[in-house]
Amino acid sequence: MPLEEIVALAVLAGEVMLRNGAETSRVEETMAHIARACGASAAECFVIPTGVFLNVTDASGRSLTTMRRITDRTINLDRIAKVNELSRRLAANRLGCAEAKALLARIARERTGFTLLPSMIASGLVGGCYAALQDGGPWEAVAALLAAMAVRYIAHVVSRLQGVRFTFEFLGALTAAAFGSAAHYLWPGLGRDLIVVGGIMPLVPGVAITNAIRDVIAGDLLSGLSRGLEAALTSVAVAMGVVIVLAVV
Amino acid sequence: MMVKIAAVFVMGTAVGVMYRIPRGLLPYGGLNAVLAWLVAYLLGAAGMSVVAAIFFGSVALGAAAEALARLLRKPATIFIIPGFIPLVPGREAYTTMRWLVEGQHGDALAMGMQTLLTAGAIAFGIFVSITVYRLALTYMYNFRKGAGRC
């Protein structure tokens, strides 16, 4: 495979993984594996949460460096698992490089996961079950379920505004707190607290926290720090959304 | 008790759906959540402090996730995230904010400390189990290499 194509294939794999929330060391290892499996003699990569740098050297000693900026990030662990599987098969020679390229393009394009309604139900179940875990009554759990579903719907609406960070978490927490307060006002028998807590549970930055820990352990201190900051700022945005409603009501 | 275990299982599975983990692995996410929560709950019921109980729950979760990742050849993140969400101190964080708004600053400070410690216990528990797991792997690898030479 010519050098240019190796670089294009490896950097696309890195881009797909990073865009969907993979940890730094996994992205670096996958890119290096893919480049070596396709005939490079050496591959060096440097990955931070906002960009991918890759340098590949072929057998004749020629080398090529490329860089890819990552602006919008989502969370799709299914795609990460698929790219991971692809690089394993490539490294074990169970997949040709040309096929890998087509497969990778399909992984990057295809819509995986669930449509709006199932993910709203999942979000609602997270909130409702958490309220039930904290000794909430059945009606409080149902109200928390509805609040968490509303939060997921807000995410669907706000996700069209790209490049505005932490808005979704702030608005989601605002909605959950307003929902809890309204439910408590209409039916005073319902506790406000558990409804709001259940409503904000889907906003917990699970991927940012996990990746921050894993990056720090792997020695990728820069990525670990920035992901830890992302998790902390997300929590602050959620807290602000709740505090504003509690202070007004 | 059984209701709570069912709630934790449903919650872990639902978190998996939210983060779009591969569909076939959803039950593992739920089971991992049940394991972590059960360890934390039983230790808490046996009289251990909340922070320590959650720390050990999180250690169990990290170890199970690494073992599953190796067994099924999938990234460990897939099993960690559904597992730790039920342990997150959401209620404590909310109570801190409520007391801050209501002006009970002393109580809010104590509750805020507990929130931070609990969150730290989750993070450090995962940290410890992954580190120990990696050390054990390196040790076993070196051991096998040494045995081969002899």
Please describe what this structure looks like.
The complex is a heterodimer of chains A (249) and B (150). Chain A has 249 residues and is mainly α. Chain A folds into 2 domains: 3-109, no CATH class; 116-248, no CATH class. Chain A has 10 helices and 3 strands. In chain A, helix 6 (138-158) packs parallel to helix 8 (192-200). The relative contact order of chain A is 0.12. With 150 residues, chain B is an all-alpha fold. In chain B, 84% of the residues lie in helices and 0% in strands. Chain B has 6 helices and no strands. In chain B, helix 3 packs parallel to helix 6. Chain B is globular, with a radius of gyration of 18 Å. At the A-B interface, helix 3, helix 5, helix 8, helix 9 and helix 10 of A face helix 1, helix 4, helix 5 and helix 6 of B.
Features:
heterodimer, A: 249 residues, mainly alpha, 2 domains, three-stranded antiparallel beta sheet, 10 helices, 67% helix, B: mainly alpha, 6 helices, 84% helix
Summarize the structure.
By secondary structure, chain A is mostly helical. Chain A contains 10 helices and 3 strands. Helix content of chain A is 67%, strand content 8%.
